[in-house]
Amino acid sequence: MHTLDAPTAVRPWAAVPPLAAVLRRAAVLPLVALGVLAVACAEPSAATPHGAEPPPSVDPIAPAADTAVPPSPAPEGTFEGRTIAPTMSHLGADWLTRPERITEEDPDALHAALAVRPGQTACDVGAGNGYHTVRLARGVGPRGRVVASDLQPEMLELLRERVAAEGLTNVVPVAATDGDPGLPAGGCDLILLVDVYHELAAPEAALAAMRAALARGGRIALVEFRGEDPAVPIKPEHKMTVAQVRRELEPRGFRLAQRFDGLPWQHLLVFERAP
Question: Cα dihedral sign for 181, 187, 193, 198?
Fold first, then answer.
């Protein structure tokens, strides 16, 4: 049997101190505790750096009094409380040239109210297949020009075909993006959006770009189906009220200059750049 040598043998009882020593230590402990408590309750010493007060205690649960709660972000696909409508696909382009559009929208009355003049630059945003582009091009004449902007390359191709068939040479097709219609800076006497504004996916950025594109005295004209009128047979997300249009444009640097209610189903709201 293996045995341990005496010098290295483990003696469990050797670690136990005599009873008298234990009693002496027990008597000292309360005094030490009282000393620690006295130090903790003492006033801050003059040695505090730069005379600064010690940092106050912070409740890890209660928020700071001056903490601002950020507003909840607007739901995706909305703007100023309005649901942004989906963009009309080029596959439905025939709807833009339907014969009923003459009686439902009265484009002759619309363009008479717009009163573009020869030599001006008119910009047709969301031009589609060019239904209003052609009328604008005739209104500004050969000395003027029309910038026709659209998101969809297929729509721009249909527009080019229509313009060529009409023999017009003063139309410039432009590819747009969600936040930028691609208009010339400071170069537009009129920016026209017919049944388009409510579909803009990034209205904040698009409005800023259009405002920068207005020439001195330029106008931006929004034509929208009347949201106040339940008799207008258009889906609600494709209609707008005057109050909603103003709520969105006026805080972003525009002021209402003209309102025309002579169209069968739509508002014509003309804005200028606010000072």
Answer: positive
